[in-house]
Design brief:
This is ESAT-6-like protein. Belongs to the WXG100 family. It comes from Phytomonospora endophytica. Pfam families: WXG100. By secondary structure, this protein is mainly α. The chain has one domain: ESAT-6-like (Helix Hairpins). The chain is 85% helix and 0% strand. It has 2 helices and no strands. Helix 1 runs antiparallel to helix 2. It is rod-shaped.
């Protein structure tokens, strides 16, 4: 079943996704800064494990930010495609004197 959405709604979803990504990035950065403060507290094998956890945290955070950026871009492109299709349809009707 097709989903009906206006260009404005889709564009707003893209903006909201970007805004959410920015908010999450800020929270990830704050958390990363807090965790860096703890790095010196670990010694030996625990220190190495802590660094592995930090690397995993960074990778997962980057992956999430990439995914959100991709979602926002797909939404923007979808909005542009819908707008172009609507304009093309209106133009077609105009050619036949229907509007």
């Amino acid at each position: 079943m097709p989903i009906a959405a206006s260009v404005e709604t889709i564009n707003q979803a893209a903006t909201d996704t970007n805004n959410t990504a920015e908010s999450i990035q800020g929270k990830l950065t704050s958390l990363r800064n807090l965790m860096e403060g703890l790095a010196g507290s670990w010694q030996g094998a625990a220190s190495a494990k802590f660094m592995q956890v930090m690397q995993a945290f960074d990778k997962e955070g980057n992956d999430m930010m990439t995914a959100l950026g991709n979602i926002a871009e797909i939404l923007k492109q979808s909005g542009a495609n819908i707008q172009a299709n609507e304009e093309e349809s209106n133009s077609s009707f105009d050619k036949f004197g229907m509007i």
